[in-house]
Specification:
Blueprint: E1 10-11, E2 17-22, E3 34-43, E4 48-51, H1 52-55, E5 59-62, H2 68-73, E6 82-87, E7 108-117
Antiparallel strand pairs: 1-2, 2-6, 3-4, 3-5, 3-7, 6-7
Amino acid sequence: MDVGAATKFSKTDSGLRYRVLRQSDGKKPTASSTVSVHYRGWLDNGNVFDSSYERGEPATFPLQNVIAGWTEGMQLVGQGGMIELWVPSRLGYGERGSPGSIPPHSSLHFVVELVSVD
């Protein structure tokens, strides 16, 4: 994290909340980019539901194949940067949730390091 990183969240028109934890002038992804990231995701109660850090390797995926909150949020930071996302349910898994890990209507929280953009 940068010294003096934002302590308050900004909010986009869609309702996504975010704060940039590490600035970067690196390449920013578009909605059609494939990214490699390290991340940790947790629920409002603090329970971690997924973490690439725990697996010991970054995850790589096309942004068009993830939840809307990620597609939007990852475009706000450049390669080498770090961002915290607070994703409202409608930009996450909504009323269906994700069986076994994310209850219906859950807000999601993520810290994400953008390792690379293709």
